[in-house]
Specification:
mainly beta, 1 helix, 34% strand, globular
C-alpha cells in the first residue's frame, strides 16, 4: 500500500501530503517517522525517544485500508539493539476508538540486525482511515527506544470516489 502510494505520488507520501505520519515520540527531525516510507533513501530511519507507550500513526486521510500483513525491517546498525519486542497494530476511523488488528509480546523475530519480517494480522473485513503501531513494553535493549528504517503495509486500499 505504501509503495503503491509512493510510486503514484512520485516521492515521500508524507511530504507530498498523501498521508500524514505522526508520532508521540521521535528524537529529532532527522528521525521523523516519515522516514519509514522514504524508499529513495536507505540511510534514514525512525528513532523514538526512551518513552513509554510510544506510537506511530498513519492517517490515510480520504483513503481507507484493510491491512492483511505488514513488513518491518529492524535497525541495521550493529551497535543498536533497540528492536521492537512488544507492540500492537491498531486501526481506527475516528482516531479515538482503536481496534487491535495484530499484537506481539516478547516477539524475537525483529531482534537482530537488518531483519525483514512480515507479520500477518487478525484482520476481519474492516477498513480503517488510521493505522497505528504502538509499543506496549520494552525493546530488546530493555528500554523504550525504537529504531527501524522501513515499514510496508499490504492489503486492500479504498481510494476516494
Amino acid at each position: 500500500i505504501m509503495r503503491y502510494l509512493t510510486d503514484k505520488a512520485g516521492g515521500n507520501i508524507h511530504d507530498k501530503g498523501v498521508i500524514e505520519i505522526t508520532s508521540n515520540s521521535y528524537q529529532c527531525d532527522g528521525n521523523h517517522p516519515k522516514n519509514l516510507v522514504d524508499y529513495q533513501s536507505i540511510n534514514n530511519m525512525y528513532a523514538s525517544k526512551d518513552q513509554k507507550d510510544g506510537h506511530i500513526c498513519f492517517d490515510f486521510k480520504d483513503k481507507q485500508n484493510q491491512i492483511s500483513s505488514y513488513l518491518i525491517q529492524s535497525c541495521c546498525n550493529r551497535w543498536n539493539n533497540n528492536h521492537f519486542r512488544n507492540w500492537v497494530v491498531e486501526g481506527s476511523n475516528d482516531n479515538q476508538k482503536w481496534e487491535i488488528i495484530d499484537e506481539h509480546s516478547n516477539d524475537s523475530k525483529l531482534n537482530g540486525f537488518d531483519n525483514k519480517v512480515a507479520f500477518y494480522t487478525k484482520q476481519e473485513n474492516n477498513f480503517y482511515r488510521y493505522i497505528r503501531i504502538r509499543q506496549t513494553g520494552v525493546s530488546w535493549q530493555n528500554n523504550y527506544w525504537i529504531y527501524f528504517p522501513f515499514l510496508e503495509f499490504y492489503g486492500k486500499l479504498k481510494l476516494p470516489k
